[in-house]
Amino acid sequence: MAPGLQLDYFDGRSARPQRAEIHLQDGRLRLTCGLQQQQYLLRSVRWPERQRHGQRQVLLPDGGVLSCADASAWDEWARASGLRDSLTVRWMQNWRLVGAALLLLLATLLSAWRWGVPLATEAALRWLPPTIEQQIGTQALAQLETSWLRPSQLGAAAQEGLRHRFAALVARAHPQGDAPAYRLHFRAAPDTLGPNAFALPGGEIVLTDALVALMHDRPDAVLGVLAHELGHVRLRHGLRQAVQASLVSALAGLVVGDFSALLAGMPVLLTQQAYSREFERQADAEARRCLLAAGISPRVMLEFFERIAKTDQHAAANRLPIAFSSHPADSERKRFFNDAP
Fold this sequence. Notes:
Radius of gyration: 33 Å
Largest sheet: 6 strands, antiparallel
Order of helices and strands: EEEEEEHHHHEHEEEHHHHHHHH
Helix content: 40-55%
Shape: rod-shaped
Strand order of the largest sheet: 4-3-2-1-6-5
Strand content: 5-15%
Low-confidence stretches: 259-273
Number of strands: 10
Distance between the termini: 95 Å
């Protein structure tokens, strides 16, 4: 006869416990409570996880509950009856296996970050239609205009002159007509952006009045800044960054179980994230190519870098990290433009 165990039985209809005895026989749990006898298939019973402390509770398929306050007595009975912990419980009870699982999880997350996220980003960029990209950029620009941007104070003639010169540069840099679609916006943002320019998904390019004023005697440098932003548009850096950050958020949500505000926060994400150094290198290369194609020496950018460096450092520290001048020109970038033919 298999060993028995005395414990409390709750029948699911009354809160009063009843004293009962259980034992295992022929693949079934047999329950004796007074004159009442019941039996359950072992696979239909939810067994408790083995822990160091606390009572053990068994959930029966008919809604009843078995409760054993003596954990050691339960564990001894379970071993004598041939009950084995599930693989998951055995794994959790072994610190070596827990450590191995943790290392495996970290390796999986690192692999997903290193290879999975970039591959998924490329797939998403191929799948997303241009209309979605334009919608994201339009929403991001609308949010910026309600928070930080103000109508431009530049005269209509000055704006039209820069539009015309930039359009001519783009035409010469893309003689095959393969230039990306863009929309140039002039805006004022003295406190949040200062002398700056930035690009959003879908071809929205914003140029601040402060940058035009800073380079009033070097309009070719302004064209170089705009060409840099056009490079971000052509290479879809804004959308690429937003998708990649969203995938990382989704990966984090998979770990912590919170997917809230994943898509709703995309416009905010675009306005608060700086481009990566590699993206900046690519945009710089596009700016230099465009300037050379238009017959303008890329060295005009050196003066831009010098003037940006002289702007109020305290104010620059409080500005949004989304635009060209938010990336201080290091020696590598200066050398890149200075070494151009």
